[in-house]
Amino acid sequence: MDDTIWRRNFATPVIRTDFAHQDEWTRIQAAIDEPQTEHAFQAYVDFVDDKAYEGLTASGLLRIVPDDSDARFVFLVDTQALTHPDRPILVVNLYDWVEGLEDQGRGPQYGATFRVVPSAMWSVQNNLFLANMDWEEFAGSVDDDGIFRGFE
Predict the structure, then answer these.
(1) Which of 81, 83, 98, 118 has its CA 20 to 30 A from that of 90?
(2) Does residue 122 register a pLDDT over 80?
(3) Is the pTM of this model over 0.85?
């Protein structure tokens, strides 16, 4: 298991957790990499294709992230992301700042999740990374099925 994924500069890890759907993994990477707006905005990510993460869930992720990690959130490409027609990728919150909290970063939204389609990942990644928007703004804008498809 490569611990350097937790200490990258500006790219967010996209961790593959399903190794049964190789063709879909290739397609989802291409969909994530594709610029999504007229200004060519895209998600800045590092793809992690390591069988050590096979079967990893959001709760399992919380147990393996080092305390000194720089990652504020992670994308998990699980079976649902690779088999659902919309390819909804799981976003896991790894840092929830709450003023006055003794264990800073471990607020009530620590470990919270929502799903995002590849075409809207740029918005989530860019805005959460730069702290232009908060977790709640995206999580509160998911459709009835729990998937964020962008702001209308």
Answers:
(1) 98
(2) yes
(3) yes
